[in-house]
Structures are given as C-alpha cells and as structure tokens.
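Honest question from a wet-lab person: if I give you the sequences of every part of a complex, can you actually get the arrangement of the whole thing, not just the pieces? Trying it with mine:
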Amino acid sequence: MSTSTDNNASITQESGPSAAVQDIQKKIVVRTADGEVFNLKEEVAMEIDIIKTFFQEDSISYETVMPLPNVEGWEMVKVIEYCTKHVELKHKVDGYKERKAFQALFVQNLSTKSLLALTNTANYLEVKYLLDFLCQAVSEQIKNKDVDYVRELFGVENDFNDEEYEQVKAEAPWAHENLNNDLH
Amino acid sequence: MARKLSNVSNEKLEPPKNRKLTSTTQFPTATDHRTLTSLQTKNTDIPPNQEDEVEEEHHILRLPNRIVLEFFCKIPTKWLAQCKCVCKSWRRLLSDPHFTKSLLSRTPTYLLLRDTCYLKSLVIFDFEKASDRNMFEFWDRPKTEDDCLTKLSGDRNALISGQVIGSCNGFLCIYNDWPNPWRLYIYNPITGESLTLPTPEMKCSFFCGLGYSPISDVYKIVMFKYPSEGPTNKREVKVMTVGSGVWRTIGDLGFNVLGDADSKGVYLNGFLHWIGESCKDSVSIFAFDVENERFQELPPHPSALKIKTVEIFNGWLSIFLRRRGVISVWVMKDYGVEGSWTKELEIEKASDSRVLMSTNKGQVLMLRDWEIHTYDLGTKRYKWVPVNGLPLVFQEIAHTPSFVLLKDIIKG
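Yes, you can. This is the full assembly:
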C-alpha cells in the first residue's frame, strides 16, 4: 500500500560540500500507521527509545523501514519536532528560555484531544521527557478548573443523577468552596 | 532528515483519522518541507461529522492508568477532589485501591494546620508554594483567600475538635474526650471518612501512636499508660490492628517514656518513636517496630540528656537541640546505625522559634511569633512568608493528602 521513499531525493536539496556531509549522516526510516514514511536523522531517532531498541538491540540494519503501527503521521511530525529541538538544546548551555518558548508554542495549536492522543503516542514510542512534558501540559489544563469546565474539556458526560452528585460533593465540600472563577 | 515545521497555522490541529491514500498522496522525502497546512489539506478526505464519533476515543481514562497517574499527581488536592465529581469512571478511579495508593506515593507532604484557637478547623498548608511566592505578586492580589491554604470542612462529626495524636499516610488518629466517654477515631480529611475505634480499658492518660507496616500492609495503633513510672511490670503496651476491632496486650514497656502526655509516637518507615530512659540518666530513642510489635533502643545521641521529643527532618529521624538561641538539627543519617548521628544544620537567632519543615529549596521553614518565615542556611537570614488567613494559633502536623478509602486499609 505504501511506497518507500526515493533515497536519492535526499541528496539534491543543497549543492556544494555540505551535500557530501549530509550524505554521510545516517538516516533511519519509519513508517506510521497511515502509511506515511519519515526519514529521521540518527541522533533524533535515537531519542525515541522504541526505535533505538529496535535498531540497536536487535542489530537491525538501517536499511529496514521500521513500522510504527500505533502512530499516526501527524503525531510523528510532532514527536520529531520535539525531539529535534531537544537534541538541539542539549548542546546549548543556557537554553531554558528558548525551551520554554518552544514548549508554549508546541502545545498552543493542540486541542485537548490531540494532546491526549500525543501523550499516548509518546508513551508508546517511549520518549520519557516528551511524555513528562505532555502530562504536565494536560495537568495544567485541568488544575484550577471547576467540574463543568473539566467535563467540557475532555468531552466527558456527567452520568451522576442529582442525588448521586450531591452525595459525592458532600464527601469533600471544601473542594467546591472558595473557587476563584476568574481562573478560567 | 526530518524538517522543522514552518507555517504553523493558527487553527487547532485535529488528528486526522481514517485518512485515505489517494494517488495524489505525497510521501515525504528529505527534501519535503512538511507543513501543517499540507497536512490539513489532506484532511478534506474526512467528512466533518466523523470527528464527533471519535470523541469517545479521547476520553482521558482510556489511556493507561500509569499515564493518568502522571496527570493526576501534578494536580493540587483540592482540584483532584473535585475531579471525583466529574463522572462515575473518574470517581471509580479516584477510589480504586491500587490507583489511590500509587497516587499517595507520588503526593508531596504538606503541613496540616489545626487551628487550636477558634473552631479547631483543619487547613492544608502548601508551604512550598508559599515560600516560592513572589512578594510583589502577593501584594497585588486582593486580600481574599490564599491559594496556599485549603480549608477542610465537612467534618460532620466535629472530629477535629479532638486532639490529633497520630498521622500516617494521610490518615489521622484522633482522640476526643467529648462527649464522654472518650473515643478514638481514624479519619481521612480528604475523603471525609472516619472509623470509630473500640477503646481499650485505660482510665488515665496514655501515650499513643498510629503506624503502618509495609510488610503486612496494615495500620496499627499502639497505646501505653502515662505517667509511665512505677514498676516496669505495670506498664502494659496494647496494640490494635485497624479493622480488627480487638486490642491485644503485647507485654510491658520496659522503659520510661519522657515528655508530656502529648508526646505522639513519631512515625518513620514502619517504626514509631518516643524518647525514653531505660535506667536513670540513660536517655535514648525507642522505636516500636509496627510489624513485629517490639520495642528496640536506637543508638543514642551524645547530648541526648537534653531532648524531649523526636522529630522527622527531611526524611531522617532527628532531634533539635537548643542552646543560646541556636537550634542544632541532628539527624540519624543511617537509621539505627551507631555513630550515624550527624549535625545537619544550625539555625541562629532562633529563640522562641519553631522549626516546621525543610523545603525543596534547602531552606528551613520556621514559625516565629506565629508568622511563617524561611531561614536561608547560606545567608543565615530569615525571610517573612506572608500567608493570608493563617490560623492565629495552630498545631502543625505533617500530612500527605490521600484518596485511599478506609475499606482498603481495614484488614481483619
């Protein structure tokens, strides 16, 4: 169903000596669930533990296209984006502000649904720092919000009837008091 | 090689589902600039209403529990308690024995302040947040509720008018002598659950402690008479496993406990601690092994003669020695090991001050004149921590908020 990439296409992008340098850099190829194929720089690919294990532990040749049946193309794009930035910042001494700015932008365009899907993917791919960051991002969305807001955010239906709801609420009435509504 | 995304659009990125591959589908090569706009044009394959059908799949609880735990352990207790009201499955999860236990192990310890002046109410004090706070930010805010304090209400049985004599893994042991006769309770202020315990036959004051044995996964209460003077064979120790409903006499104390009747057993890692002397002038710390139900004497600190209470500091068993306005904090770095008492730090100008906790930033949280301060070990200076609505006079208890239900700790 899918076609593999044309490896020769990778060389034509730049002319001059740098092209030769890029030639030498190893690439790892993965294929996501929807048939999209991605060429990853080795150092970025090795940030993704599941890929690292596949190629290193089992000594599989880099010629092999690794299938990622649980990952969608758009998710792979985001993971690559994050890992690439992470690798870039590793070599920087004071990348704190830059990292924060990048992280803010990274989640800015993601709906809650997408965040959750991406969290699942980060868990499957075993990229711990991305998983931690995404969990933090989701928690930020939940904390300081009241029950109705949280329901809407996660598309969850209230399946308590009035009586049940009052009962649950009464277990911890202090949790529903003194809410600062302008925290929304 | 993977290309950085450019032209990031401002629309929300929805995960494309059921993407059909057509003959025009372009596969990325290294020369491709993958842009979000190019992804979204491919989205036109999906009819709009299909997005609604896939909403179910993104329910947060369909993620592995391990990940849901990661979200929840970063949410403050008050909001987590609210999360129980979101829907039935969230409530089930936040009542599940395994989940709540894992959550407990990831929850930080706060200070529970028991207002001893007025209503004897309980307040959770997030001291890390308070000591981190920016002064200017604080003054800017209207003087209403302080988000470092969470008042706990809903104590229908007015349990908290009693004395808190033990705190272990989020459970409090409370002694209430009104209405007569006196009663003992196990209380979890977060879930609001309480359990009245049968009282043993002790007609006078007693020492008490609530401890946990990780080996058998049970909670036990230990009790012995105060004053514990007189012939050693009359100082019976009674133990009850929470949930068994039965007090067992396990033997004699074998030492004199020093300190007031208020001396609670200090819990650390499966042991409850009191200061005592086995014979005259030989002051030591005695540790009650919750699992094996036996007392053992710990290697004493050289100046043990002056201490009256044991403390926990930064996860170590410790004692605070006061001398000429300086508090020396000594800790037992290797529990039970001879010679492992180490002077951890000194706090100067500390007369009339009380050590509360150590903070994550390596400062010491202190109480001076009923105001919270942090003491910086480097500069040896105090910094006032303004907290709106702090109780005027209080008893502080180290407490880890827990959603564990009573039924999950009661074993026969």
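Two things worth pointing out. Helices of chain B lie at 36-42, 50-53, 65-72, 77-83, 88-93, 97-105, 127-132, 135-140. Chain B touches chain A through 61 residues (CB under 8 Å).
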